[in-house]
Design brief:
Layout (H helix, E strand, L loop, with lengths): L2 H17 L2 H29 L18 H4 L14 H11 L1
Helix pairs in contact: 1-2
Length: about 100
Amino acid sequence: MTPEDGEREELIIGKLRSANTQEYTNKITNMFNDIRVSRDLGALYKETIMQEPNPKEYVSDLEPRILDSGAWQSIFNKSNESILLPPMLINTQEKFAS
């Protein structure tokens, strides 16, 4: 993120504060933060994978999305369904979580 992007983000949040409730503005602020954290963690993950002895064991172009359920709940429906991940994704998930 460039300094200009950060300034634009602050400008948008400032305008939202003046036009909306504090609760709504807090949710939007949390969403911006989630996007920033996701981007930073993704970059760190890619650096970590490239240092592994066998990086091909992992998904190297993983783009994680860290989402605060309170802020994003209205966008995504909650689901109780589970999925079975292929072994390569299981390795990747475990590496990302470590």
